[in-house]
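Quarterly update from the structural biology core.
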Amino acid sequence: MNKRTIAVAMATCMLLSITACDRPQAKASEIHTQATFGATDETGATTPIFMQETYEEVVLASETGTTYNFSYDTDILTYTGQGGNFYLVGSDATKCFLHIVVLDQAQDSFDSSKTNYKSSITSEFTLGSGHNAFIYKTADANNIHVVIDGSSIFPSGKGIINIYIGSVSSWPYSAEQIAGIVDSGFKV
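Predicted structure, tokenized:
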């Protein structure tokens, strides 16, 4: 490039900058001195804090009194502090509830439950963990039950997790997704 072309380009930039600065600029009403948007690990990768899942653990008891640790994502579920009662974050416990019942007695098997609810079963599926599950309807069309084979979770090798989903139409998750959330909350 020759010197004349560079001089013309510099003059044009200077002229644009002068005219831009003559315009009144909006003044900031608040100055933020620090904001934390994420955490950086040893590799230098930043993970946004607002996207990290926050888990809490509660102890749920079965009918026999045996206790089980249950971990749940507090961005999705709120624990009421009563037994296995949860509800969707941002909702109302009376309108959108989830009741988890742990049944671990010898007669509580997945196969016997399937036989008992045979006429009411609406779908069967396998969860990501490999556990089998099925959904059965109740007299109230807006409330359903999901039964998960919990035999590998319980020390006795028998048992089920029965999830009572209230106001199922108000949940942003399908019954299968809710079953997956609950199933993953029990540690093997």
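Residues 126 and 132 are 4 Å apart (CA to CA).
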